[in-house]
Amino acid sequence: MTMNTQKTLVLDACKQGIERWKIAFNTQNAAGCAAEYEADCVMHARPFGVFTGREEIQAFWQKIMSDGFCDVDYQDTKWEAKGDNGFILTSSWTMNKAFGVVHREHWLLQADGTAKLHSDDFEVQGER
Q1: How many CA atoms lie within 13 A of 2 on its CB side?
Q2: How many CB atoms lie within 10 A of CB 113?
Q3: pLDDT digits 0-9 by tens, 36-82
Q4: What are the contacts of 1-9 at 24+ separation with CB within 8 A?
Q5: How confident is the model at residue 105 (pLDDT cuts 50, 70, 90)?
Q6: Are 97 and 115 contacting, i.e. CB atoms less than 8 angstroms apart?
Q7: CA angle 94-100-101, nearest 5°?
Q8: pTM here?
Q9: The CATH number fitting domain 3-127, selected from 3.55.50.30, 3.10.450.50, 2.60.40.10, 3.40.50.2300
């Protein structure tokens, strides 16, 4: 397999991962959101704090959903290769009640061929 073919496969897996995460969020499925993170992932959710591991991350997303947040959409998404098996996503985002930016989502290819979030750093910048 050529290096370009490998990069394309990794990028496709990462793009499928973020789509699964958005679908889970938009269907109010906090467990589905958490499933897109590696087991020991660290998520920096500014200004809320740092959440480590799927259990804390799932609880965070459940609270956000319970508070009525939904309909997330990413804009101006950029992907940058990180090593041989990952990509960094940066983006702006909107949802029904807030907007902000993704500073750095690091997606890594897993042994099963899917990609999961290795780390996540995003910020809520305001209300809508």
Answers
A1: 3
A2: 11
A3: 999 999 999 999 999 999 999 999 999 999 999 999 999 999 999 99
A4: 6/84, 7/81
A5: very high
A6: no
A7: 110
A8: 0.94
A9: 3.10.450.50
